[in-house]
Amino acid sequence: MQGHVAAPVKVGVLAVQGAVSEHMDALRRAGEAIGVAVEPVAVRTPADLVGCAGLVLPGGESTTISRLLRSSGLQPIVLARANQDLALFGTCAGLILLATSAKHDVADKDIELLGLLDCEVDRNAFGRQKDSFESAVAVEGVGTVPAVFIRAPVVTTVSEPTQVLAKTERGIVAIQKGRILGTAFHPELTGDTRLHEAFLRLCADAARTAG
Questions:
Q1: Would residue 186 show up in a list of annotated catalytic residues for this protein?
Q2: Which of the residues 23, 188, 196, 203 is marked catalytic?
């Protein structure tokens, strides 16, 4: 009798803007690295999110992403499922949207924060596009990873139960609460898949909860 083959873990990437294909590729490679079958899905509508154990909120322009989350009808579903059976990974602008509060160049923008990570972020704290750079960052539980910072935010304050995973001389750049992960940098733009591997483990846990 043939052995049972586990169904792929379905993981969405919010496909509004940003490095969507890069995240999807990183998820595939991360799955191969840890022996987990992954089905990356581009998410634009609530129907696309059905069956997903996780959702990546990629970088881009936080105002645009926030507007599209609301106009598509995705925002209330993401908020409801985040407290039940959905893992989330926000990178750069995605981290901003997951925060409970933000300062500098936010009050006058049409940005509605999701409030899922207990933190305050400083939007564009690392400067403009021309100030982009790559650095090595030590991430708790993961190791030292290459990190690409592009118009990146920085986390200025964190409250429990959200935990700090990584800091630089400029401030906090990676945090986690349960199955919700946020980084100020872009791990999908490097060849290192360890953060995506960590996220896939959170997705697998979410899938077990849903099952």
A1: yes
A2: 188
